[in-house]
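Please describe what follows:
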Amino acid sequence: MDSAATPVSTGTKAVDLPTDPDLNGDQESDSQTPGDIPLRLTVRMLTKQVISVETFSSDTVLDLKMQLQDTVGYPADQLKLIFTRQ
């Protein structure tokens, strides 16, 4: 059996994260499903690098980690996200 870790969705939604007040949740595009709310998240890496990520409220934590993997290059299964309200 392969010992490599495979990311598994926890089903946790990104909707628990704060939204940008400038975004209007009533606007819908063809890529959105009804009820999707656009979110702009700010991610600060341990290296103090700050990244702005745009996602939707229906995305899972795994979806967010995969997007960060594509942006910064760290494997999604090695990313740990910590929420802080500011």
User: Anything to note?
Assistant: The chain has one helix and two strands.
